[in-house]
Design a protein that fits this description.
heterodimer; A: six-stranded mixed sheet; five-stranded antiparallel sheet; about 60% strand; globular; B: about 110 residues; four-stranded antiparallel sheet
């Protein structure tokens, strides 16, 4: 059974701080790892990672995957109050009957104070 | 916008009532997923459709849960004889195919069973 563990479960920082969110996984046939940001509504897509060592970047957010050690990190630099949200990590299994369903971690609750 | 929409956004049901939750995926998206998200947890897979075919229903928690997508676009998740443990947010997601494409989520339906 696929498994995703995120840490820390919650994090409180002040504006301007840099944060690193962790995601470790166990999956039978790895296809991809995805990061989502969830505020009080739909999870919104951030990154999809398929290859080790290639950083994906979008503004102040970046993410990298290590397929050997089975983990990914999401970095947010110069945090803003608008970054406050739950960050979800999910893996997609490439197995024949998995049909691309996502297995999610519990999420990291990030709170950014002014 | 042309995102995933869900209705109703909130539903309160008395224990034992039947409910129907609707999902309108992004036009042209072949794959449609339903997830259940309990408070403080990450979403958990319920079922998957490829066009009108329900190819995976392994995540449905009981035979009280039923989903359909008769014309390959709109989908309905039905819960019969609701129980308190069914209280959760039900998320719908669609993607172009099940393969290497990210999933886009709707805002969810928050179901409260009293």
């Amino acid at each position: 059974e696929d498994k995703v563990v995120q840490s820390p479960l919650s994090l409180v920082v002040h504006e301007g701080d840099t944060v690193t969110l962790n995601c470790s996984y166990e999956v039978t046939n790895f296809r991809s790892l995805l990061w989502y940001k969830q505020e009080k509504k739909a999870p919104t897509f951030l990154f999809m990672l398929t290859s080790s060592g290639i950083e994906k970047k979008s503004g102040r957010l970046s993410s990298i995957l290590d397929k050997k050690e089975l983990f990914s990190i999401l970095n947010i630099t110069a945090t803003q109050t608008g970054d406050s949200a739950v960050y979800l990590c999910a893996v997609k299994d490439a197995g024949g009957t998995s049909y691309g369903k996502l297995t999610f971690g519990q999420g990291t609750i990030l709170t950014v104070h002014p | 916008g042309a995102g995933v929409s869900q209705s109703p956004r909130y539903k309160v049901a008395k224990r034992g009532q039947d409910v129907a939750l609707r999902c309108d995926p992004i036009s042209g998206h072949v794959s449609l997923f339903w997830y259940q998200q309990a408070l403080g947890q990450g979403p958990e897979f319920l079922t998957y459709f490829q066009n009108e075919a329900q190819l995976d229903k392994s995540g449905l928690p009981s035979d009280r849960f039923f989903a359909e997508r008769p014309e390959g676009s709109v989908s309905t998740l039905k819960i019969q004889r609701t129980q308190q443990e069914d209280s959760a947010v039900y998320l719908c997601a669609s993607s172009l195919t099940e393969g290497f494409h990210e999933q886009y989520f709707g805002p969810g339906t928050r179901l409260t069973v009293t």
